[in-house]
């Protein structure tokens, strides 16, 4: 029996040597926060990476969702429609924006909310919703065009929680896209987030909200906000991450392809396009119900860590057990079977073989 545990995730941020040029710049400028030069340069590089005309950098991805909802949600309404199958931070962000999460089911194939699911839920509500929060499943790119059409048809604002999808985005428009810059993400700076949007007014407002609502040069709080900024030290990490991003993406593609090759003979499903069209920092397989328990037992016996990264759904957390919801049949059936396998740069070919041998 193997004695060495295979870890499920081992994040890696830039080395001290990679950070040093940017730390020297901080020492020279003696600007440490409050939208300093590194903050602006990092913002510009994120804009170039994602094609988003406007960027608001936030202290984490949860606050990015909160601020975007505070600006976009319809005033005087309670509900934010959102998938039950998501990381719990999505639900907390909705509450922090002063809204009530209304939990919906997801597509079994894509593991995401669809316009059709939302449209089917609308007649079941006792009032029109304030917004829809569309969550990208584990870094998959959202379908911006379909959700733009949905908003135009129904007049319900849409906000995207694309926490892990920052390198998979194309066509960011007026509907804000919120991403995470946590250490476990491809563009990870430790803690951080961003709102991406082509709506200049929204970006101006959300950026002001990250700094106590100050608009313009005067220190006058024009709108309610808080302190959601990042320091120049966090921006320095971001700059070093961007320097090394091409090599990191290639390594993630290579590791994804190594998994996909081994899965050709396995009876598990992966997300469409993963490893080819997009990559992220996790790798999930969907296991058939009848094979699930035996698969998990084999992984445990081989000392291979695994995770249900999103748990069993927001409604399974005590904090949201009473959240209003529609039927969640697909979520309840799907969530236990989405298994995160080890995915990091310390995996050897032998490790990958050992992991694959545990799969049905």
UniProtKB/TrEMBL annotation:
A Pfam family of this chain: DegT_DnrJ_EryC1
Keyword hit for Transferase: yes
GO molecular function, one term: transaminase activity
Keywords (A to Z) from UniProt: Aminotransferase, Pyridoxal phosphate, Transferase
Keyword Iron: no
Family statement: Belongs to the DegT/DnrJ/EryC1 family.
Protein's name in the database: DegT/DnrJ/EryC1/StrS family aminotransferase
Species this chain originates from: Paraburkholderia bengalensis
């Amino acid at each position: 029996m193997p004695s060495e545990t295979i870890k499920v995730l081992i994040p890696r941020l830039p080395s001290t040597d990679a950070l040093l040029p940017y730390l020297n710049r901080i020492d020279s400028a003696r600007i440490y926060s409050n939208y300093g030069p590194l903050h602006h340069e990092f913002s510009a590089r994120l804009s170039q990476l994602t094609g988003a005309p406007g960027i608001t950098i936030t202290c984490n991805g949860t606050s990015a969702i909160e601020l975007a909802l505070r600006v976009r949600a319809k005033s005087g309404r309670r509900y934010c429609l959102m998938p039950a199958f998501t990381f719990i931070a999505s639900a907390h962000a909705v509450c922090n924006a002063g809204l009530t999460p209304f939990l919906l089911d997801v597509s079994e194939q894509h593991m995401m909310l669809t316009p059709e699911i939302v449209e089917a839920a609308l007649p079941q509500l006792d009032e029109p919703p304030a917004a829809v929060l569309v969550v990208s499943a584990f870094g998959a790119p959202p379908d911006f065009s379909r959700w733009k059409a949905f908003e135009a048809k129904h007049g319900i604002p849409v906000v995207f929680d694309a926490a892990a999808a920052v390198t998979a985005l194309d066509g960011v428009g007026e509907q804000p896209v919120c991403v995470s810059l946590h250490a476990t993400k491809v563009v990870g700076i430790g803690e951080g987030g961003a709102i991406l949007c082509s709506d200049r007014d929204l970006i101006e407002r959300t950026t002001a909200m990250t700094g106590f609502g100050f608009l313009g040069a005067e220190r006058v709080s024009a709108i309610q906000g808080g302190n959601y900024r990042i320091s120049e030290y966090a921006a320095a990490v971001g700059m070093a991450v961007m320097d090394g991003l091409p090599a990191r993406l290639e390594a993630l593609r290579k590791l994804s392809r190594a998994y996909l090759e081994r899965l050709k003979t396995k009876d598990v499903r992966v997300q469409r396009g993963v490893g080819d069209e997009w990559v992220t920092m996790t790798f999930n397989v969907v296991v058939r119900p009848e094979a699930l328990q035996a698969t998990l037992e084999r992984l445990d016996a081989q000392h291979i860590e695994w995770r249900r990264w999103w748990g069993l759904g927001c409604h399974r957390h005590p904090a949201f057990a009473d959240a209003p919801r529609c039927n969640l049949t697909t979520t309840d059936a799907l969530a236990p079977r989405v298994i995160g396998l080890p995915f990091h740069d310390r995996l050897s070919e032998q490790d990958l073989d050992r992991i694959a041998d545990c799969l049905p």
